[in-house]
Amino acid sequence: MSAFHSRWLVAVGIAVSLVLGGCNSSKSVRAASTMPDKDRKPAPEFELKDADGKTVRLSDYKGKVVLLDFWATWCGPCKIEIPWFIDFERKYKDRGFAVIGVSMDEEGWTVVKPFVSELAINYRILQGSDATAQLYGGVEALPTTFLIDRDGRIAATHVGLAGKDDFEDGIKLLMARPSAGLPGRFVPAVLFGAN
Amino acid sequence: MARHGGSLEVKTTVLLKPGYHVNSNTPSESYLIPLRLTWEPGALEAVEVVFPKPHMEKYEFSDVPLSVFTGDFYLVTKFKVAPNASSGPGLAVGKLRYQACNNNSCLPPKTVEVKLPVVVQ
Questions:
Q1: For residue range B32-90, what is the model confidence (pLDDT) as tens digits?
Q2: Distances in Å between the alpha carbon of A46 and those of A62, A145, A195?
Q3: pTM (predicted TM-score)
Q4: Which residues of B touch A25 (CB under 8 A)?
Q5: Is-contact B79 B30, C-beta < 8 A?
Q6: Nearest by CB to A76, which of B10, B101, B109?
Q7: CATH architecture group of domain B7-120
Q8: DSSP class per residue in B31-85
Q9: Which domains occur in chain A, in start order?
Q10: Residue A164 in contact with partner chain B when CB distance is under 8 A
């Protein structure tokens, strides 16, 4: 039998429905409406590695106001916010404030380190994981940023690109409040069902 | 259905949720994850995947327009029947890799499987 070339166009092919969950609008809490003390929940503890391989825990930052940013190198909105966070770290690090960036890049330090160098990021970057994201409610969309008060409680949450003033107003508000010295300020990961 | 020595084109329709876009197969920025459709070796050999023409869209988070797909679109895979393909039913398995964003946030890259039942005669 000679070679028979036929072209069969499957008119009704395979439909792939990319039904995406997650937010389709920015959910941001303005600094003016930063959660009242009584409504703030403890920020889950985590243990992650930094670029030098050192283990870093959220509890290492007790007594400080922390901006915890979940981001990735492929995230355009994240790239808008990072220069703001660089500015905050520079301005406020000597006043009991710190930025922590948690990279959700699957490729890890191979892509993250050059990115950090290119953008001259001056704050600590940790390699995140799905487990860490689950601790913080799933982190379905990036960027997702938390403002954590001096007592280790989540005071504000921003999902998606927010305004620089939104963050800065919140940081100033939280820095102005001393730690209340609340006991058990960081909730162990095990209470959140982490493996 | 495909014949030994023959070829086949398959249309894969992608339905995107309103408000979201995926990077095209040729993103305009190097840091963006491109749309990819790949097929595992089997009875059908993928010769080429044809993508639609992308849109150039400007978003709040980007200084430059981005090369994206939105809404409903389809990819066409051109297959040829593998020389050593066995006659009878089989399954061509593909992987569609995408990364989607809306105007102010991005979702993690995902890979979904695409399965194509095939009968080689």
A1: 999 999 999 988 999 999 999 999 999 988 888 999 999 999 999 999 998 888 888 88
A2: 13, 15, 12
A3: 0.84
A4: 102, 104
A5: no
A6: B101
A7: Sandwich (2.60)
A8: TSPPPEEEE-SSSEEEEEEEPPPPEEE--TT-SS-EEEEESEEEEEEEEEE-TTP
A9: 27-190 (3.40.30.10)
A10: no
User: Is A23 an active-site residue?
Assistant: no
List Cα–Cα distances, A140 to B14, B62, B68, in angstroms: 21, 21, 21
Which residues from B are below 8 Å from A110, CB to CB?
none
Annotated catalytic residue A78: yes
Q: Which residue has the tokens 């409680």?
A: A153
Tell me whether residues B104 and A22 touch, CB distance under 8 A: no
B119 CB neighbours in chain A (<8 A) are none
β-bridge mates for residue A179, sequence order = none
The tens digit of pLDDT for each residue in A20-66 reads 433 444 445 444 458 999 999 999 999 999 999 999 999 999 999 99
Reference A130, options A193, A40, A60; nearest CA is A193
The answer, for A122 touching chain B at a CB cutoff of 8 Å, is no
Here the tokens at position B1 are 């259905």
Distance separating alpha carbons of residues A158 and B22, to the nearest angstrom: 23
**Counting one residue from A and one from B, how many pairs have CB atoms under 8 Å apart?**
131
CB contacts, 8 Å: B22 with chain A: 18
Which member of A66, A67, A68, A78 is catalytic? A78
Q: Which residue of A has its CA nearest to B115?
A: A14
Q: Judge whether A102 is closer than 8 Å to chain B, CB to CB.
A: no
Neighbours of A178 (CB within 10 A): 10
Query: What is the C-alpha to C-alpha distance for residues A74 and A141, in angstroms, rounded to an integer?
Result: 12
Is A189 within 8 Å of chain B by CB? no
Domain range annotation of chain B: 7-120
The tokens describing B35, both together, are 């749309």
Distance CA A72, CA B99 (A): 12
As a whole number of angstroms, the distance between CA A27 and CA B102 comes to 13
